[in-house]
Amino acid sequence: MRTLARTLTIGIASAAISVLSANAVSAARISNPVAVFAGIDKITGRITTFDVYIDETVQYGALQVTPKVCYSRDETEAQRVDGFIEVDEITLDRKIRRIFTGWMFADSPGLNAVEHPIYDIWLTGCKQESDVPAPEATN
Questions:
Q1: Every domain of the chain and the residues it spans
Q2: Does the keyword Signal apply (predicted)?
Q3: For 28, what's the count of Cα atoms within 13 Å in the CB-facing half-sphere?
Q4: Residue 91 CA neighbour count, 13 Å, CB half
């Protein structure tokens, strides 16, 4: 009896591992070349959406935004968009000061949004193409 119970337990455990492994493979992250951000100017109340290519730096007000990676899931999975982002502030004395380095999650914008006295920015998505021309490669 004990041998049968142990065999059943091992069989169930193996089946569970197989299912988990299959789900892990199908839930692979897709690396995207473009990160999509939204920003708000708190003085004017204007919200702007802008695309930034990976490793490109774009200035939004006094902030410089540089995405390092932007991941999404394929269309058969629940979308979870995240990106590793660096944000610098240009101070009044023209110095550059890093104010954020870390992961942003599109489905939880309040978790790691960049909050600045004048500008807030957050990741809203990732995509494969943009209407904005890609930056020129430097050799």
A1: 30-127
A2: yes
A3: 7
A4: 6
